[in-house]
Amino acid sequence: MSIMLKDFQFFDGFGSINEINNRLIAGISFTIFVLWIELILYLRLMPVLGIYVYHVVIIFKTVFPFFLFISIVIFAFAHTMFVLLRNPANIKTKDSTYSGVATNSLTNETLDIKLKSDFDPMSSDNPFTSFSKAMMATYFWINGDWVQRD
């Protein structure tokens, strides 16, 4: 909070700040989030709205173990893939060529297709070079978004 208090002025709040401070923006955002949570929790005192807050709390208590389990699974897979693939030069990749024949259905033209796998270990395509990228890639695996298919 001391990050925010040194820039706060009583007459205009944070209006006198000339440069953008990312830590200040993050602090203000977190404070606003906490205030909203506090407001929602204070709504429990009103009987008409309190029942809805009570239901949300019960649902959260029921679903929380599932989210905790999924988080542990994501962490485990991300850590495994990070250790395995952070430096793909250690893994001997095999350059392979796939070939086949395709026929254009409109003109009956035959096309000879050869695909060569082009893997550059120094490129930025590897989503497992840092642990944060590995966590994000593993999270998207749950949805079926495999970046390796592209």
UniProtKB/TrEMBL annotation:
The chain crosses the membrane at residues 24-43, 63-85. Keywords: Membrane, Transmembrane, Transmembrane helix. The keyword Transmembrane helix applies. This is Uncharacterized protein. It comes from Rhizophagus irregularis. The lineage of its organism: Eukaryota, Fungi, Fungi incertae sedis, Mucoromycota, Glomeromycotina.
